């Protein structure tokens, strides 16, 4: 099978972890790892692994437009906008891991097939990848949901300076994603950083306010969708199956990382990367069939 | 000249005690009374602050908008304060609204080790010309050295004073002295203490803080607040008067305000219940108490077991969902035994 | 419509600060690179060069190097549209080639925003150290290089500022709490000076170091949580002034156009490896400063102080001794009162937030 040639823009933790994961893919070939500085730890890792690297940022692709078919953007929302202007003209597919929201939101367990019809897909947020499939299942089994809320706790150690500075953007993007997929009237996202040692695993609770809970059907839907997520995020698990208490449905899930580039507590990073790879692989499969 | 700046979160921390069900009318009544007593700062809102009304920590009866507008109308001598935790409240959705309504004092809070998340909110509020404080919650959980480091960050972000909270009511006086002295000798700005009464030390700890150099203290009418409640404001004012400190608060009027509060806004006057003692010993956030009580009853689990399990997990304020997880774990364990 | 344009306002300031045009002649027909070019220092040096080109036919070219040029271009059209100003959009840490016609380099990259120093200390250190070494390494290969002005900081004086109440000499050196994240900026700035001396010694690079103190004036961002900035901001938006920390602490402020003239003068002096404090020696207590600002507004402004008692008896003074700069015929042409008045007026006229 011919592999899809992919490039990674951004040599931080997300980009580097993505690169390591792609090495295991039957469908993807990481042809270029792009940053701005050859001496960053991510670059060193890539060079050690024998992957082509560039420190020329988006110019690396502009200079050699035929180098790849798909680009993972792991930079920042601001840069992603600028990159898309260029990559769209070059006809590249972009899997966007920043909160830029230029393309449609993609949650592989929910809308994988639809997503790959677009040239730019956005991976929402880590909390969104963990909570939206559950919110979607609640939306599927309940009508007229008044309100859905998702609360994520992550290990303080797994939240870098950029995450801390951009909590508001995380909240906005996650709330937007939950709303779109659950069709709830209002949504809310909350993020807690917990400094406890040993580090806590990423944990997410989904609350829904519904008139009447349909737990039987919801349980079935959730079991199905959790299995689906597990097929691409092995460390994803249902911690507390749906219960109805105090007028609210409560479901808790957690995500343990694969421990590729960052240790296992960084489940938040793992889940968004696994999702991004899944959508890229779908593009690859379609191309082979098409 | 005020020696000690008193901030009164009766209508904020007290909201925890009634599962965030304070009504606009109650807010109006207490604001009027506190305003008459010339309480310098009256803090109003959901127990977990601005934008925190949620299934996670409790849906408030009134929106932030209603609470703050009502308070604004009834405060003229006193400044209107709010508590803001980034992660719950965003600048665009919540803080802008509060500033438009006309809050005077903004206290931006984070867990004691996570001051970085307050930079944007503190800067924004300062740029809008507001009086801004940094608040470190659950401050018993880190050492004095680490606490100073976080507090200094907030000072550099533009905070005009740092308040450490004994959110779990876990402090003994000697640790109050240690932490407050460390802060006052390292910071250029005033330092404050927010007490909880789980171990019966709220007033004693507040006075200890003051002796160690703190100049800002929080107190609530009848101690109305999360868990076992806060330092009782009218007692605090009496003790401060007796010690010769000036708070600018009218003593008779604050006594009146506390009567009004008891009559109009409290379902129960805070007492130190058995579970509060356990909660304090386990170092668990006081705001958890209502949900722990409800879930313990609902699933027939011992509250004390829940508190000790939460303490072991080192949960922080805002992680109320973990109570459910803990209850489920206890149930599972019970089944096996 | 304002009768006075922003550019006229600024050019008037430049004219006053430029006490002896002939001293800057060495820069005529030369090309200057400024890293961190879109900051306060970069803007003012650009304005001064624009003035010299226009009034005295200097024909000096400026390259401004910064990461985000687009925002700057839209915010400061008078600078960015000038025919003698060119832009290099790049991260200073990663430069490896520079235009070969550069004769002078002003290394002013890294934000002095203390909020960023503590929330992003690693980025701060990287920008200062990797940035400085990239600039020096690349400058080494410039064929017609005459001098590099390395912009250090008064932070490198460490606790001298806490120990002394007299003005700080270039030879004074204090210690710093090396195990604190609050030292990230200061320690990196110290190390950067060491890098400069290494490049000077090992690679024979001509480098002059300046250590700036506090500045004020147009282009100074009032959102910064520093005393003078927040006092002026509060006064402009109708609030009261709160002094944080000891009101008896002593500071001084240099006006933007004076700073620009000083920087260019020091840049153009024949290279001697000297270090110069750049600032004002007109000392004032924070309390007196707040009163001075209050007097410049036509309304009653309440001034209150907030501090911890522990530190109230320790007076912290941060005022440079500038006799070395004076030996180069440099003076502060704007008094503190004039600097404040001018800053307030500029913000009222030209800053959308306050006008």
TrEMBL record, chain A:
Domain Semialdehyde dehydrogenase NAD-binding: 5-118
SMART domains (alphabetical): Semialdhyde_dh
Main enzyme class: oxidoreductase
Positions annotated as active site in the UniProt record: 126
CDD domains per record: ALDH_C (cd23933)
GO MF annotations in UniProt: acetaldehyde dehydrogenase (acetylating) activity; NAD binding
TM region positions: none
HAMAP family listed in its UniProt record: Ac_ald_DH_ac (MF_01657)
Similarity annotation: Belongs to the acetaldehyde dehydrogenase family.
Alphabetized UniProt keyword annotations: Aromatic hydrocarbons catabolism, NAD, Oxidoreductase
Catalytic activity: acetaldehyde + NAD(+) + CoA = acetyl-CoA + NADH + H(+)
Name under which the protein is recorded: Acetaldehyde dehydrogenase
Residues at which NAD(+) binds: 11-14, 158-166, 268
Entry EC no(s): 1.2.1.10
UniProtKB/TrEMBL annotation, chain B:
GO terms, biological process: L-leucine biosynthetic process
Domain Pyruvate carboxyltransferase stretches: 4-255
Class in the EC hierarchy, top level: lyase
SUPFAM superfamilies assigned to the protein according to its UniProt record, in alphabetical order: Aldolase, post-HMGL domain-like
List of catalytic residues: 16 (proton acceptor)
Top-level taxon of origin: Bacteria
EC number: 4.1.3.39
Coiled coil: none
Pfam family, one: HMGL-like
GO molecular function terms listed in the Swiss-Prot or TrEMBL record: 2-isopropylmalate synthase activity; 4-hydroxy-2-oxovalerate aldolase activity; manganese ion binding
Catalytic activity: (S)-4-hydroxy-2-oxopentanoate = acetaldehyde + pyruvate
Record site feature (Transition state stabilizer), residues: 12
Residues that, per the record, bind Mn(2+): 13, 194, 196
Record carries keyword Metal-binding: yes
Keywords: Aromatic hydrocarbons catabolism, Lyase, Manganese, Metal-binding
Gene3D superfamilies tied to this protein: 1.10.8.60, Aldolase class I
Binding residues annotated for substrate, in chain numbering: 12-13, 167, 194
Family that this chain belongs to: Belongs to the 4-hydroxy-2-oxovalerate aldolase family.
Name recorded for this polypeptide: 4-hydroxy-2-oxovalerate aldolase
Organism per entry: Aquirufa rosea
Native organism taxonomy: Bacteria, Pseudomonadati, Bacteroidota, Cytophagia, Cytophagales
Gene: dmpG
From TrEMBL, chain C:
Ranges of residues in domain NAD-dependent epimerase/dehydratase: 32-279
Cofactor(s) required, per the database record: NAD(+)
Signal peptide extent: none
One Pfam family in the UniProt entry: Epimerase
Top-level lineage group: Bacteria
Keyword rRNA-binding: no
GO biological process, one term: D-xylose metabolic process
Name of the protein: NAD-dependent epimerase/dehydratase family protein
């Amino acid at each position: 099978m011919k592999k899809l040639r992919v490039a990674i823009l951004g040599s931080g933790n997300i980009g580097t972890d993505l690169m390591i994961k792609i090495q295991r893919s039957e469908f993807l070939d990481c042809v270029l790892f792009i940053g701005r500085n050859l001496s960053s730890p991510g670059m060193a890792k890539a060079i050690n692994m024998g992957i082509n690297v560039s420190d020329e940022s988006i110019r690396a692709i502009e200079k050699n437009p035929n180098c790849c078919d798909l680009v993972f953007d792991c930079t920042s929302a601001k840069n992603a906008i600028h990159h898309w202007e260029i990559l769209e003209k070059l006809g590249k597919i972009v899997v966007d891991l920043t909160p830029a929201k230029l393309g449609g939101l993609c949650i592989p367990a929910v809308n994988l097939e639809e997503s790959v019809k677009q040239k730019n897909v956005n991976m929402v947020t880590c909390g969104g990848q963990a909570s939206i499939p559950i919110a979607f299942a609640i939306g599927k089994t309940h009508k007229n949901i008044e309100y859905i809320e998702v609360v994520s706790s992550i290990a303080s150690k797994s939240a870098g300076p950029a995450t801390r500075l951009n909590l508001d953007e995380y909240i906005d993007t996650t709330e937007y994603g939950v709303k779109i997929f659950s069709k709830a009237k209002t949504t809310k996202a909350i993020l807690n950083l917990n400094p406890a040692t040993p580090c806590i695993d990423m944990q997410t609770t989904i609350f829904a306010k519904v008139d009447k809970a349909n737990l039987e059907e919801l349980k079935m839907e959730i079991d199905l969708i959790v299995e689906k997520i597990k097929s691409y995020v092995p460390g994803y698990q249902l911690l507390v199956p749906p219960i109805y208490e105090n007028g609210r449905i409560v479901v808790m899930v957690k995500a343990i990382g694969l421990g590729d580039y960052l240790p296992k507590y960084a489940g938040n990073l793992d889940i968004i990367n696994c999702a991004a790879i899944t959508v890229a692989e779908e593009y690859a499969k379609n191309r082979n069939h098409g | 000249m005020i020696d000690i700046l008193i901030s009164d979160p009766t209508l904020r921390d007290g909201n925890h005690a009634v599962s965030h069900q304070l009504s606009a009318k109650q807010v109006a009544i207490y604001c009027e009374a506190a305003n008459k007593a010339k309480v310098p700062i009256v803090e109003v809102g959901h127990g977990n602050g601005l934008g925190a009304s949620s299934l996670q920590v409790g849906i408030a009866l009134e929106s932030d908008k209603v609470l703050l507008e009502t308070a604004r109308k009834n405060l003229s001598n006193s400044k209107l304060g709010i508590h803001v935790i980034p992660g719950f409240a965003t600048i665009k959705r919540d803080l802008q609204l509060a500033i438009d309504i006309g809050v005077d004092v903004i206290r931006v809070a984070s867990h004691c080790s996570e001051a970085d998340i307050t930079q944007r909110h503190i800067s924004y509020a300062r740029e809008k010309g507001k009086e801004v404080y940094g608040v470190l919650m659950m401050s018993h959980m880190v050492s004095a050295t680490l606490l100073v480091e976080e507090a200094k960050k907030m000072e550099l972000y533009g905070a005009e004073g740092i308040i450490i909270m004994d959110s779990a009511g876990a402090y003994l006086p000697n640790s109050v002295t240690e932490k407050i002295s460390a802060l006052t000798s390292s910071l250029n700005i005033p330092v404050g203490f927010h007490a909880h009464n789980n171990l019966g030390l709220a007033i004693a700890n507040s006075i200890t803080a003051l002796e160690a150099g703190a100049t800002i203290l929080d107190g609530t009418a009848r101690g109305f607040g999360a868990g076992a409640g806060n330092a009782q404001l009218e007692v605090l004012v009496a003790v401060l008067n007796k010690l010769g400190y000036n708070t600018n608060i009218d003593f008779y009027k604050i006594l009146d305000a506390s009567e009004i509060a008891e009559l109009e806004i409290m379902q129960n006057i805070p007492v130190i219940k058995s579970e509060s003692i356990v909660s304090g010993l386990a170092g668990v956030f006081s705001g958890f108490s209502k949900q722990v009580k409800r879930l313990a009853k609902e699933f027939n689990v011992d509250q004390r077991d829940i508190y000790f399990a939460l303490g072991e997990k080192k949960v922080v304020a805002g992680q109320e969902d973990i109570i459910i997880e803990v209850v489920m774990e206890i149930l599972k364990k019970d089944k096996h035994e | 419509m304002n009768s006075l344009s922003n550019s006229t306002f600024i050019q008037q300031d430049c004219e006053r600060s430029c006490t002896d045009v002939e001293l800057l002649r060495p820069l005529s027909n030369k090309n200057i690179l400024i890293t961190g070019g879109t900051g306060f220092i970069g803007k003012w040096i650009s304005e001064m060069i624009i003035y010299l080109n226009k009034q005295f036919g200097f024909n000096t070219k400026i390259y401004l190097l910064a990461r985000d040029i687009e925002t700057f271009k839209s915010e400061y059209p008078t600078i960015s549209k000038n025919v003698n100003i060119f832009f290099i959009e790049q991260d200073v840490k990663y430069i490896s080639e520079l235009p070969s016609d550069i004769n002078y380099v002003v290394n002013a990259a890294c934000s002095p925003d203390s909020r960023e120093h503590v929330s992003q200390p690693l980025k701060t250190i990287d920008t200062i150290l990797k940035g400085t070494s990239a600039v020096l390494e690349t400058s080494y290969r410039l064929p017609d290089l005459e001098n590099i002005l390395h912009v250090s900081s008064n932070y490198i004086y460490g606790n001298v500022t806490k120990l002394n109440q007299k003005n700080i000499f270039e030879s004074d050196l204090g210690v710093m709490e090396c195990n604190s994240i609050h030292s990230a900026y200061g320690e990196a700035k110290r190390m950067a000076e060491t890098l400069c001396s290494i490049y000077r010694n090992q690679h024979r690079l001509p480098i002059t170091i300046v250590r700036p103190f506090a500045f004020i004036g147009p282009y100074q961002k009032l959102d910064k949580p520093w005393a003078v900035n927040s006092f002026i901001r509060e006064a402009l938006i109708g609030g009261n002034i709160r002094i944080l920390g000891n009101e008896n602490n002593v500071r001084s402020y240099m006006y933007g156009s004076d700073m620009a003239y000083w920087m260019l003068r020091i840049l153009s002096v024949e290279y001697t490896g000297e270090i110069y404090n750049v600032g004002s020696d007109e000392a004032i207590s924070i309390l007196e400063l707040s009163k001075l600002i209050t007097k410049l507004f036509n309304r009653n402004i309440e001034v209150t102080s907030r501090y911890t008692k522990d530190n109230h008896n320790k007076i912290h003074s941060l005022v440079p001794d500038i006799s070395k700069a004076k030996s180069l015929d440099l003076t502060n042409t704007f008094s503190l009162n004039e600097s404040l008045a001018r800053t307030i007026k500029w913000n009222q006229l030209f800053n959308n937030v306050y006008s």
